[in-house]
C-alpha cells in the first residue's frame, strides 16, 4: 500500500532544541524543492493505494536516495549515517521513535520503481526550475560519456572461468537442497585456476610465441568448460523432473536456483561460441559478451589515451545554462555521436516548447546534415566544428566570435561530466544491466541537479 507522506511528529521531535534539528542551507533548500507534490506523482501509478502492506513514505525514500548519491554512500552505510544523525533524520522525515528503513527495503524499492520513476522525477525537477525561471532553455550543449559497468577487464579465459565458477556454485546449492544427484557433477575449478595462472606467467614474455601458448591454454579451458556445461545441463533436467514430481512441496527459492542455472548455462554457451570463433581467427564479433554478470555491457572506444576501450554503457547528456542537466539517455550499443544530435534537439523542444537559440557540440557530432537539420528545427546559432580538413570559407566561419564563444562554453561541459563521474557515481555503475545502469545514472543526475539548484535558489 502506497504511503506518500508521514506528517505525524512525535513528542521527542517537538522537545528537541532548534540547533539540533536545524538543517544546513543546502539540505534546507533541497527539502524545499522536494516539498512540491509533483515529485510524488511518479510513484502513484506504480503502487496499490489501498491494498497490501504500507510502504515507507515516498518522501522519505526520495530524500534517502538524494543523500546516497550526493555523498556516494552504499545502502548499508546510508542507513547507519541517517540513524546516527538527528539532522539527516529530520531531513528524511524519520521521527526519533522510528527505525530507519532497512537497506534491503531501499534496494527492493529502487528495483520496483525502475528507471521510469527516476526519469519522471528528473523531468519534474526540470519543470520546477523552469517555473521558477532559473533555466529558460536558450542555450544547449550535447555530449556523450561512458559509464563503466562493474566488471573486471574481460579476457576469453577469464570469461570462461567466470562461467564455470558460477555454474559450479549454483549446482552445489541445488545439490545441497536435495533435488539433484550429488555425484553427477565434477568440480573443475582447480584445473581452470591452474591454467589461468599459466596464462599470467606466459604473458610476462610478451612475444609471438607467448601469444600462441595463450591460445593453446585457452583452448584447453574451452574444452573443460564444454564438459562443465554438459554436466550442468543434465543437472537442470534432473532438477526439473524432481520439481514436477514434488510440485508445491519445494520452495520458490529452489525454482529460482534452477532458473539461475539455466540462464548461466545459456550465457556461458555464448562465451564458448565467441571464444571458439576467436580461436579460429575471427576477432570481429559485433555482439561480443564482455561479462557473464552484465551481458548488456558493451566495449566502447572513445579515443582516450589512458582508456582506449571502456566496458559499459554510453550516455548522452543535454546541458543548458547554469550547468543544469535537462536530459539524459543511456544508450544500447555504441551509436555514432552524429546520429544523436537531432534527437537531442527535438527532446529539448519537447521540454521547453521552443528550440534553443544557440547549440554547441564537439566535432564528433559534426556529421553531414546535422548543422542544416538544426537550423531547420529553429536553432539560430549552431557551433558545430566539421570533421576532417575544412575549407578556407569554413575556417573563417568557425573563427567568428559567436562560434568560438559557444565552443568555450561547451568546454565547460567537460567539467560537468568530470564532476558527475567524481562525485555522483557516473564513473562506474554498481547496478547491473541496462535498466539498473539507467536507474543509477538517473539518480546521480537527480542528486546533481538538486544540489546545483539548491545553490542558486
From TrEMBL:
Protein name: ISNCY family transposase
GO BP terms: DNA transposition
GO molecular function, one term: transposase activity
Domain of life: Bacteria
Residue intervals of the Transposase InsH N-terminal domain: 20-112
Transposase IS4-like domain mapped to chain residues: 309-450
Amino acid at each position: 500500500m502506497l504511503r506518500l507522506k508521514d506528517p505525524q511528529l512525535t513528542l521527542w521531535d517537538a522537545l528537541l532544541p532548534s540547533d539540533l534539528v536545524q538543517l544546513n542551507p543546502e539540505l534546507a533548500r533541497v527539502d524545499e524543492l522536494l516539498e512540491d507534490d509533483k515529485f510524488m506523482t511518479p510513484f502513484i501509478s506504480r503502487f496499490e493505494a489501498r491494498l497490501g502492506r504500507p510502504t515507507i513514505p515516498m518522501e522519505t525514500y526520495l530524500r534517502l536516495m538524494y543523500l546516497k548519491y550526493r555523498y556516494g554512500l552504499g545502502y548499508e552505510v546510508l542507513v547507519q549515517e541517517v540513524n546516527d544523525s538527528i539532522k539527516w533524520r529530520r531531513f528524511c522525515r524519520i521521527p526519533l521513535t522510528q527505525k530507519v528503513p532497512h537497506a534491503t527495503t531501499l534496494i527492493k524499492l529502487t528495483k520496483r520503481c525502475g528507471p521510469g520513476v527516476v526519469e519522471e522525477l528528473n523531468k519534474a525537477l526540470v519543470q520546477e526550475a523552469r517555473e521558477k525561471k532559473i533555466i529558460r532553455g536558450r542555450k544547449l550543449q550535447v555530449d556523450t560519456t561512458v559509464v563503466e559497468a562493474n566488471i573486471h577487464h574481460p579476457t576469453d579465459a577469464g570469461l570462461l572461468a567466470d562461467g564455470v565458477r558460477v555454474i559450479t556454485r549454483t549446482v552445489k546449492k541445488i545439490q545441497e537442497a536435495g533435488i539433484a544427484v550429488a555425484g553427477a557433477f565434477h568440480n573443475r575449478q582447480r584445473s581452470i585456476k591452474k591454467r589461468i595462472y599459466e596464462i599470467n606467467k606466459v604473458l610476462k614474455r610478451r612475444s609471438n610465441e607467448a601469444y600462441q601458448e595463450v591460445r593453446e591454454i585457452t583452448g584447453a579451458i574451452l574444452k573443460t568448460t564444454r564438459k562443465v556445461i554438459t554436466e550442468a545441463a543434465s543437472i537442470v533436467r534432473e532438477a526439473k523432473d524432481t520439481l514436477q514430481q514434488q510440485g508445491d512441496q519445494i520452495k520458490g527459492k529452489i525454482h529460482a536456483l534452477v532458473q539461475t542455472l539455466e540462464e548461466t548455462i545459456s550465457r556461458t554457451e555464448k562465451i564458448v561460441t565467441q571464444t571458439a570463433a576467436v580461436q579460429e581467427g575471427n576477432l570481429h564479433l559485433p555482439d561480443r559478451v564482455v561479462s557473464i554478470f552484465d551481458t548488456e555491457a558493451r566495449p566502447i572506444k572513445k579515443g582516450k589515451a589512458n582508456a582506449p576501450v571502456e566496458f559499459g554503457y554510453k550516455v548522452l547528456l543535454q546541458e543548458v545554462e547554469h550547468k543544469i542537466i535537462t536530459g539524459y539517455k543511456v544508450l544500447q550499443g555504441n551509436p555514432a555521436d552524429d546520429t544523436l544530435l537531432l534527437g537531442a534537439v527535438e527532446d529539448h523542444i519537447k521540454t521547453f516548447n521552443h528550440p534553443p537559440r544557440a547549440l554547441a557540440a564537439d566535432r564528433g557530432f559534426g556529421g553531414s546534415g546535422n548543422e542544416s537539420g538544426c537550423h531547420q528545427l529553429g536553432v539560430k546559432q549552431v557551433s558545430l566544428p566539421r570533421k576532417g580538413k575544412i575549407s578556407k570559407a569554413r575556417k573563417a566561419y568557425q573563427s567568428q566570435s559567436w562560434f568560438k564563444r559557444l565552443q568555450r562554453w561547451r568546454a565547460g561541459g567537460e567539467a560537468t561530466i568530470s564532476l558527475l563521474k567524481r562525485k555522483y557515481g557516473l564513473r562506474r555503475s554498481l547496478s547491473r544491466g541496462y535498466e539498473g545502469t539507467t536507474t543509477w545514472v538517473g539518480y546521480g543526475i537527480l542528486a546533481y541537479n538538486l544540489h546545483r539548484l539548491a545553490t542558486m535558489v
